[in-house]
Specification:
The chain has about 180 residues and is of the alpha+beta class. Helix content is about 20%, strand content about 35%. Strand 6 and strand 7 form a beta hairpin.
Length: about 180
Amino acid sequence: MAESFTQPAPSVRPAALDDGPALAELDRSTWSTLHAVTAPPQPPYGPFFDDRHQPQGVLVAEAVNPAGETVVAGYIRIVPPTPLACNAHVRQIQGLAVAGWARGRGMGRTLIRAACTAARGQGANRITLRVLGHNAPARALYEAEGFTVEGVLPGEFFLGGRYVDDVLMGRPLSP
């Protein structure tokens, strides 16, 4: 009989500049036409953090991998959607990735909840995101976490030989 082993819950923390290489590798390893509107990553690879994408906008999930090491297992990027003061009360999820080995363990849900908590801590009362219309798993997760569809841009992207909708989702951040 196989012994049952329960993995410890993932921990979520703010990103550090030193996380850049691990996050860049995670981004490359999780690239998919299901969620990406950019071409597949090709060498030479750019850095994960740059002038527009800073560590302070990223939360990192760590978990125990199959080799028994605690490593970066996912991330979520939450940032103000614009630099305008009139919508400083909003945060937007502009990236979410979970390592293949960590999927199905509640990592995405944990990151979304941590992002909502962090956004509230920054004074936001609303959070939004954009997701491709054909990404049913992500849309189901967001809906389960209280996000609703607030708008659809039909055929906004041409990916893999077909037009794909861009779906805007959002939710209030009640205390």
